[in-house]
Structures are given as structure tokens and as C-alpha cells.
Predict the structure.
Amino acid sequence: MRSINVGLLGLGTVGQALTQLITQSQPTIRVVKALVRHPIRARGVAVRVTTDPDEIVRDPEIDVVVDVMGGQHPAMEILSAAFQHGKDVVTANKEVMTYYGPALQALARQHNRLLLYEASVAGGMPIIDAITHHLSVVPIDRIEGVLNGTCNFILSHMEEGHDYLEALHEAQRLGYAEQNPEADVEGYDTARKLVLLARIGFHTEIPAEFSAITGITGVTGHDVARLASLGCGVRLVGRALCQDQGISLSVAPTVYRQGHPFLRLQGPQNAVQVTSAVGHFLFEGPGAGGLATATSVLSDILRIRQLVPDREPNPMISLTFNEPETPAICFPLDPETPLPQVLPDELRRTSSYAILSCQLPRELAKLWGLRQYAWGEEEGPTIR
Ligand SMILES: NC(=O)c1ccc[n+]([C@@H]2O[C@H](COP(=O)([O-])OP(=O)(O)OC[C@H]3O[C@@H](n4cnc5c(N)ncnc54)[C@H](OP(=O)(O)O)[C@@H]3O)[C@@H](O)[C@H]2O)c1
């Protein structure tokens, strides 16, 4: 079996877990060296470190460059140089893939190299492989997923009676949320992963950014308690739809009836549901964590050994973009205030909430004193 020499970009949580995994289980793979920012920092693994990316991309001994450093720059420049120097690339970096994935793929093809990125979405869950190689044989209509562990932790902690800020501080204390949690709680992290999944699922170009993104910062403990009393719960969900008219992408706190698989997700556990004419496919697994993510990276490294470098990519098709139209559940901010007599496109109403065929414009919801969440259930909008 051909041996593989790996050069790492980054030797943090994932880089160290990957090195340990390779040392323990892969006698034919060797980690040659790793690019880091702080060369004197103590690491749990014995790997030569460098601060010079050229020492990785120009090293003739290295076959595969593995990006576990994160961020758009200098990752994009280093990965480009890696292809130019004849290396295959494996990355766990969703930022670089969201913003530069198509350009990097084109460069990889130009140099007859491979770019694999399983770990960039949902860490240890093999969802990119499943969509690329199996599920998109039949056109996919819908991809929706709970893709951010920080938001899961916060929302499930709020179910225990805490308000948003209390839950956020607890997440930060336990290391589930970063000191600057914006990318997670404002929904941008979920949006990036959704873009990557939609590109491969719908075989089309999808811009790195879209506007229909609502994070969880507006979810109140009071709302969570009120939803629980209706037999419902809320998770941050990214949803990509491909219908006759085109494609729409959205990220929003989304309400489901108790029992829905998304509501049982806690902390780093992720889930993605893919829908096609064949039916629903539900994937669930660890979306983060050093070992889980390292498993996906290692699986890509092993795949490089098996694949012919000039494998044809899926053909691209051209589709238009639409505004997402997600049904919404809304209720008065002040529970003592009745709902407005007439709400547009009302599907169902009780004395305390209404379900609408799509979300109200934000200004109108504010004017009427209503809070609204995406309604995630597919079948008839009935809740107890
Ligand atoms: N952690 C997870 O659970 C997880 C899950 C899925 C995907 N990912 C992705 O995996 C990647 C790595 O995550 P991580 O958690 O391992 O990050 P991390 O612990 O912060 O490690 C990042 C590593 O990259 C190095 N680095 C960062 N910027 C650099 C630069 N400009 N030049 C040289 N070295 C640089 C750092 O060097 P120093 O150590 O010297 O600072 C560190 O070793 C990210 O793209 C992340 O999104 C992580």
C-alpha cells in the first residue's frame, strides 16, 4: 500500500487529535511537519513545527496538505500554493471552502489534484460524502440541518428555565461558546455550512453569502417556556430548498413539535435531513470535537490514496435564487394582548398563537407586537 506523507496547516484541537489518530492507527501515514503561529507552545504530540508555509507546500516529501488552521486567509493562499506544488489537499475549514471553494476546486482540477473537505460541515458526520456520492443520484429537493453545537447547547439550556444570556455565559464557561460568539449565535456558521451542502446537493453555484439569516439572540427564555407549553421546542436550523422556481436558503430559529429528531440534539450533536423523491434521509452525529473531526479528515486522506486524481466533478446546472418562504408561528410579545384580528395567510389560529404560510415582514411583526419563529413541521400545521 502506498505510504502518505502529510503536512499539517495547524496543530490545535483537530491537528493534535489527527496526529494522535494517525500515530495510533495508520502505520503507512506519517505527519511530516505542521505550520503553527506559536512555535514554542507546548503540544500533546511530537511533530516538527514551522511558521513558514513554504516549508510545507514546497517540501517534496509531503504528498497531502491538511488544513486544520481555519479562517479564509492565509489558508486560501497556502492551499493555492499547495496545488501549484503538486499536493492534494484535505481541509476542515468551512470559511475557506465557503468563500473560495469553487476557485480552489478549479485550481485542483487544473493541477490534476484532489480537494476533499468532509470535516468542514458537521465535523465527524460523513454528510458531504453521502450527498456527493449517493444521495444526489436522484435530484434533492430539500436539505435542512441543525449544524451548530453552540446554539444547541444554549437552546437546550434555555429549556431548563434559563434566559438567553445566562445560557450563553454557561456555554462560554464550559467552553461550548467562544468569547466572541457572534458567528455561532447570529447564524453565520450555520449559513456557511448550509452553502457548502446546497452547492453539492443542488449541483449549482451558490454565493458565499445570503441575507435570510436570523440567529438565536432574539429567542427569549419566556418564548422557550411558552413553546414548551404548546408541546413545541426550537432549534437553529439551516434550510435549503430547490423547487421548480429555483433555490432558496435560510437560517432561522425553527419550531418543531416535541418528538421531532432535531429537538433531541444537545451540544455538539448535529443532524441533517435530506429529502428527494426517494424519501427522507436523516443523518445524526458529532458535529464537533477533535477526535470526531479528525476522523473525517483521516477518511479524506485515505480516500486520496484510492481515488484517480482527475475524477470528473458533478456537472453544474444553473438555477435562480428566491426569497425563502417558510411558514411561521407567531404570538403576542405580551401574552395578555390578543392577536390582531386579521393576519395574512393564516393557516391556523388559537387564542395564543397563529401559524402563517410565511413569515411577516419584521417591521409589521414589530408594529403588531408579535414574536415569530420559523415553523419547521412539514405536515399540516396543527399543534396541541
Ligand atoms: N474543533 C472542532 O471541533 C472543529 C469541528 C469541525 C471543523 N473544525 C475546523 O477545523 C479547523 C481547526 O479547528 P481547531 O479547533 O483545531 O482550531 P484551533 O484549536 O484554534 O487550532 C488552529 C491551529 O492553526 C494554527 N494557526 C491558525 N492560524 C494560523 C496562521 N495564520 N499561521 C499559522 N498557523 C495558524 C494555530 O497555531 P497556534 O497553535 O500556534 O496558535 C493552531 O495550531 C477550523 O477550520 C475549524 O473550523 C473544527
